[in-house]
Amino acid sequence: MKLNKHFLAITGTLALVLVLAGCVSNKSSEKSSTTMSKNQTVNISTASEISTLDTAKASDSGSLTPLYQIGEGIYRLGPKSKVENALATSTKVSKNGLTYTFKLRSNDKWNNGQPVTANDFVYGWRRVVNPKTAAGYSYLFEGVKNYSAIQKNKLSPNKLGVSAPNKSTLVVQLSHPVPYFKLLLAFPTFFPQQASAVKKYGSRYGTSSATTAYNGPFELADWNGTSDTWTMKKNPNYWDKKAVKLDKLNFQVVKTPSTGLSLYQQNKLDVVTLSGEEVPSYKNKPEFKKFVGGSTIYLEMNQKRVKALKNVKVRQALSLAINKNSLATQVLRDGSTAPKGFVSTNFFQNPKTGADFASDAYEKSGVAYNESQAKKLWAQGMKQVGQKKLHLSLLSDDTDQSKKTTQYLQSQLNKLPGLSITIHNVPTKSKLSRSTDGDFDLVVSSWGADFADPINFLDLLTKSNPTNNGHWVNAQYDKYIDASKTTDANNPDKRYDDLVNAEKILMKDQGIIPLYQPSTTQLWRTNIHGFVWNPAGMSNGYKGLYVTK
Description:
Blueprint: E1 41-46, H1 61-70, E2 75-77, E3 83-85, E4 88-93, E5 99-104, H2 118-129, H3 147-151, E6 162-166, E7 169-173, H4 181-184, H5 195-201, E8 218-221, E9 229-234, E10 248-253, H6 257-265, E11 271-273, H7 279-282, E12 288-292, E13 295-301, H8 312-320, H9 324-332, H10 357-360, H11 371-385, E14 390-397, H12 400-413, E15 419-426, H13 428-437, E16 442-448, H14 455-458, H15 475-485, H16 492-508, E17 513-516, E18 519-524, E19 528-529, E20 546-547
Parallel strand pairs: 1-10, 14-15, 14-16
Antiparallel strand pairs: 2-3, 4-5, 5-7, 6-7, 8-9, 9-10, 11-18, 12-18, 13-16, 13-17, 19-20
Helix pairs in contact: 8-11, 15-16
C-alpha cells in the first residue's frame, strides 16, 4: 500500500500510519484471565488523513487502514499471512490453477441492511479494471482473464473473468497461474462494492462516511471528506459481530508527535506514535510498543519532467550523496534502519535455502553512501546532459517525520556542485494528487506490503504500472517481472531468481533511491490488549483489541 501513497499507504501510511494496520505484532497480549471493561472505547492518533473510502480508488494507507476495518472480502489474513475465510465458506481451485470457485456466506450485509451477494464482487471488480475509474491498484487484477485487453480498451470491463452463477457463488478465471492470488483477495481493492450506492452518489461516492457503502466489523461516522477526526462503531449488521470486542474507536489526525504525546499524557489519547527524540524516555516502560513492518521509504525521480534525471550517473550520484544509515539512526532515531534495497528485509525467503530475499538481491552500490564518488559521477552525468546547474523540488508530506527527512535530504544533496533543492511539505492528500499527476521533481514515497511476496514491491516499477510516478523504464527488468508471472509462475526457484535479478537491475540502474525501512514506536495504555497483524496485510485488526479493567 502506498504509505502516503506515497504508505505509509505513510507513506505507505506509515508516515508512519497506524501501525496497527500493517505491521508485525510483537505478541498477542490477550489473556483468558483478563477482565474486560464495560467501556470498550479506544482513542487513537494517526498521522494521515483519509483520502477516500472508495475501495476502487484507495491507494494510500491513510485510506486503506479504515477500509480494512469497515469492509471485508473473500478472505482475511491471519498471523504470518495465513489466508483465512472471511466471506468465503469454501474454495475450489481447478487442477490447472486457472479457475477459482468460491461459495460465499448468505448472512453478510451492507451497512444499510441489504445482503452482500456474489454480484457485488462482479460489479466491484469490473469497476476497478475499467480504465475510466483510473484505479491505482487495478494492476493487481493483471492475472484475471481479459484484464490486459480491457486496459487497452479492446474489451468491455464486462468481459473480465469473473461471474456469479448465483447469489452465493463467485467464479474467477485467470489467464495464467498467479501464485499469490489468494493473498490478493484479502486486500480492499478486491472487496465487494454495492452498485446501487455507487450509482446513487456518483462522483461523491466514498468522499464522506455518509456516501459510502461497506460490510465490515465497524461503521465509520463523522468523516466529511476533510475531517481530522472520525469515529468507528461496532457494525450491528456484520456477520461475525460477536467476535468484535470494541464498541467504538475515536481517531484524531496528529502530525506532530509532541502534540500526540501531550494528548496521551492528558488521557485524551490511548494510542500515540512517538518521535525518535521521545523514544529513549519511554522504551523501557510497559506501554511502549515497537512495530517493524514490510515497508520501505524511497525517493522517486521524475524522469519524464526533468531531463537530467534520465541520466543514470546523475541518479547514482544523488543516491551516493545520501547517508541512509545516518538518516535512520541519527535523524529519525525511532528504530528505522538503512535499507538493503527496495524490497524490505525479513519479508520473503528463498524457497530453497531460506535466505532473506533482501540479502540475496543486495546490490551495495544502490544503497551505499560515498560523497566523493557521488561528486565524481555527478560531474560526469551533468557533462553528459550539458548542464552545469540543476534546481530540483523535493515533495513530501507535512508530518513531523517527513519534514525531518526532507530537511536532511536537502542538506545532503546540496553538497553536489550546482545542485539546489527546494522543499515542499504538503498535506498527504495533496501529495498523493501531485505524485499521481507527475507534479514533482523528487518525491519521498513509501510502500507498505499488501501481501507477502516481492512482486508486491517490484511490480510498482514496471513500465505500465500506474504507481511508477518517476517513469523509470528498463526493458530487461520488465522481462524478469513478466517471466515471474508467466513462464516461471509455477516454478518457485526460477520465479525467485527472476525477482532477485529484477531487484539487482533496479538498484544498479538506480530506478529509485531507497532511503530507509521504517519502524513505528508507540505508546499503548497498559489496559489495552489485543494483537496486530503481520506486515503483509492486516484484516480487521481492531477486532482483536479490547480494553480491560
